[in-house]
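Two proteins follow. First one:
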Amino acid sequence: MFKRILAFLIFLSLSLPAPLFSQEQKKDVLVITVNGVINPASAEYVGNSIKKANEQKREAVVIELDTPGGLDMSMRDIVKNIIASEVPVIVFVSPSGARAASAGVFITLAAHVAAMSPGTNIGSAHPVGVGGKMDKTMVEKVTNDAAAYIKSLAERTGRNSKWAEDAVRKSISATETEALKERIIDIVSKDLNTLLLTIDGRKVKTVMGEKVLKTANANVVREEMSLRHKILNVITDPNVAYMLMLLGFYGLFFELTSPGAIFPGVMGGICLILAFYAFQTLPVNYAGLLLIILAIILFILEIKIISHGVLTIGGVIAMLFGSLMLFESHGPFMKLSLFLILPAVIATALFFTAVVGLAYKAYKRRPITGAEGLVGMEGIANADITKDSGIVLLRGEIWSAYSDETISKGEKIVVESVSGLKVKVRKTTKGE
């Protein structure tokens, strides 16, 4: 009996599937999403994610990319992180309708595996003038530099370097099927899961040498942007930076005109600092910035100087042209929206000429309460008034009075000044 039980157990152990004892632990694939302009915030996000994937020995990093382009320095930071990564980096232009334009082309070509979804496109990598206008010689230098850089990236990953150079020099683009045919990308895949199954077993070269991808049954781990990166990504949008600048000017103006309010000054200072941080990463034209500052000065002067609207018109023109010139770039993603500029200019003009104008007039209006409110007030002499003494009736109140002229009881008087509890008066003249 014992022998039969032993034989059964041996048979059972031999018939169990081998993976139960030797199955390898599933690897993790880190997935991040870059959706929007390539800027310092997105570059830091990608760099940190790749670094984390290397530290945690992930199987691969997938960058789901949808970008119209962005800043050259930020793009180069991302490319350097991809090249230096021990973990394979897969760039997936996704979802359908996405694009990898301008800086996105460089990032895609630098990847160990480049893939696109159906209905996506890649290309138009010609460099644009960021931070100021470029003359013909400078344009040629920048273009040659970008062409050489993208060719080196394509050659490094075995992709079509001729097409890559034309994407820079001629701004050509390609659909996902054309990109696959032209050896710009490696795979067309409908979704992430299909992509991971397709690249399973593919050999790629990293800085650590050749690596075989094992992604068929990998765990997908998504790494979202941190709150800090999300905030930085939002404020580096030209439209947001523009509004932060205007709010900063408004806040500081309120604080200067109403000392002690504190909140407008604090918020204005924060908005201006955030705006200036954003300006570091944007192609700011300082002539446009100076025109906006000039416009605000003209609006303030309109409050204090009677110009019959000339200063306001000048302020509106200066602010309109300054706003149009503020960000100088051929890329539409680096320009201010006209639908933001016009309401902002009109609102600023109305704010300074109407609201602030009324406040200033109220400030200059003669006081009507307290001792200062008595000056200019009319009353009646309750007794004869001389240089030394007298009594007047003001607002139903009895006041001691004196005058440089003799005023008889019952005559109408006007207060000239107040000294303590005594008022100096004079006779009213005809027409008062």
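Second one, unrelated to the first:
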Amino acid sequence: MKENNHILAGDRIGKLLVQLSFPAMIGMVVQSLYNVVDSIFVGRGVGMLGIAGIAIVFPIQMVMSAVAQMLGIGGASLISRSLGEGNLPRANRTFGNVLTGVIVIGAIFATLGNIFIDELLKLFGATDSILPYAKDYASIILFGSVLFSFAMATNGTIRAEGKAKVAMTTMLISAGLNTILDPIFIFWFGWGIKGAAWATVLSQAVTVVYLVYYFWAGKSILKLSRQDFMIDLKIMREIVAVGSASFFRMVSSSFIAVVANHSLKFYGGDVYIAIFGIINRLVAFVMMPMLGISMGVQPIAGYNFGAKRYDKARRAVHLGNKAATGISILGFLVLFLFPKALLSLFTTDQQLIEHGVPAMRIFVSSLPLLGFIITGGTLFQSIGKAKQALYLAVFRQICLIPLLLILPPLFRTTGIWLSFPITDVIFFFVTWEMYQRQMKDLSLKT
């Protein structure tokens, strides 16, 4: 494979970033839009307890995503750098190891999760009134763990080889089909919250069929043999090392959601758990374009770092930061200025809307900083700096958890909402300092 024939070897970094980021942004936005629409359908078709049930299950889904992202992002980083070095056999072996990992771990997760489902949901903050709704949703979602993990991890691999439009298509398939099936299953079939879960699982199944066809038909640069599926401990250690930052970030975010749910249950009740669930979905929707940009930055920075073209790696990250920051500011303005209208999309419950408006404004007050936090952290994963990436993933949670324990006894639910922006401000400055040092180091290598 000649370097100058590969899309990631292009000299026009700005154009290349648009080529890779825009499809990822579209895919991620549509994917997140499905999550928002899913909650709207559940809120309208099932009610406030249905939204609260999804909010309880959300941290469990985050743990599933954490494993898939650890293998997918860690694998994508290694694949990008291997392609940059011209080492296709290592890229193939990496992908095979990623597939083996997600299938085995996904199957274990689905089995154990359903065996201990009641205990799991209560641990994650379900009250007696919320538990039946959460159980109906979680039991089906857990059933699709392997499908969900496979789709997420292979999507990262496709982006790593520069096929951003294909990666976007996989997300459009799952999100589009889910949006179509949601109202059919929830309202027409009368399945309620179970219908929302089945819509998610069936959509992922169709996506997996498309992904298998893509690789089986030889459309990928990567060509797998049986040997590639055998676990290579050296490769797997590097995948896990680089991807561990994403894993700990999402697992700790899941843990934080559990702590927040328990605090909200104690200081507010079911309605506040539902408010937290809605705000999470809306903030996640705003984050998706930023994550799409970081997904475009990662293969460009990783490839050029592997090819020792450090100036281009730096430029990709710098441009990504500018774009993500602009989106984060725009998202903040929408959520801060129109909270009542947004909450009203999900529910007609006036108590939820009344308490949700000030909660949302507090929660999103640090949103303008999020663009840099996301793309700044991507720098370290892109170039294989596992320790720095892991440190950033853990540091935010080290700040947030004490605040979630200290502030609620003083300010009740307001203390819970305040914990998040205070943490983000601290985390922004830590990320900024580490980012500047690393960019300076890349500049000296140029």
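SUMMARY FIELD: The chain is about 85% helix and 0% strand. The radius of gyration is 21 Å.
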